[in-house]
Amino acid sequence: MKRLLPLFAMLLFIVACGQGEYTENESNVVGQEISYSTDEITMNGYIAQDENNFEQRPGILVVHEWWGHDAHARQSAEKLAELGYVALAVDMYGNGKQASHPDDAMKFSNNVMSNFESAQARFTAAMETLKSQDNVDSTKIGAIGYCFGGSVILAMANVGVDLGGIAAFHAGLQLPVMPEDSLDTRILILNGAADPFVTEEHVATLTGAYEDLNADYQYISYENAMHAYTNPGADTLGQKFDLPLAYNAQADSLSWEEMKDFFDTTF
């Protein structure tokens, strides 16, 4: 079922496990650092789950913004764990690398997306790590992504990575690969209407491709929401680097509720 909800326009861009120390959070959720690798690089992720829930349940991958694997991604994994999922905040750059300046963030993200074969290998390694957890139902894997991470999960769905559903927040829509023959993943895109990084043309191109394939997608944009609207640190980063970034509490809350309903119906 397809639902296109234009509230304006939008956005930007674009296994081996190691044991870490447990840190306890609210409501029995624990987070643990976890390492996994491809042939070329080791990645340092963070897995969150309810330590008192021993039933198999869906797993959700969380792909970070272009700044790299950070507290925002980890906190999202913890929030997903509170909802009953096992969530893995992935590390697409490798070795836990983070950018402290937009120039570095652009370089890191471009390095990943310009070599899509390598990007897919890194994403797949994270997915296999999540599937290997005893309390994860390996047949029910989804993903969320922010900004760059939203672009990553949309591209992974386009090439047929086995994901039941994905929710992309303030995602870039100019993707390195587009869907061609079919698209089996359910897709939810949640963008800001005031985001200058996504044009109406970007939206039309991607949703038009989905329409051609009769894909199960939903596109929602939030009035007055700018790029990075889910990140409470966006205002500081925007001011520091003169970027059009801003946190929007209302859009953050509404989009999270949409995501919850989406995964409830997907899994």
Automatic annotation (TrEMBL):
Transmembrane segments: none annotated. Keywords: Hydrolase, Signal. Residues 43-265 form the Dienelactone hydrolase domain. It comes from the Bacteria. GO terms for molecular function: hydrolase activity. InterPro entries: AB_hydrolase_fold, Dienelactn_hydro, FrsA_esterase. Residues 1-18 form the signal peptide. PANTHER family: DIENELACTONE HYDROLASE DOMAIN-CONTAINING PROTEIN, DIENELACTONE HYDROLASE DOMAIN-CONTAINING PROTEIN-RELATED. This is Dienelactone hydrolase. It comes from Gracilimonas mengyeensis. The lineage of its organism: Bacteria, Pseudomonadati, Balneolota, Balneolia, Balneolales.
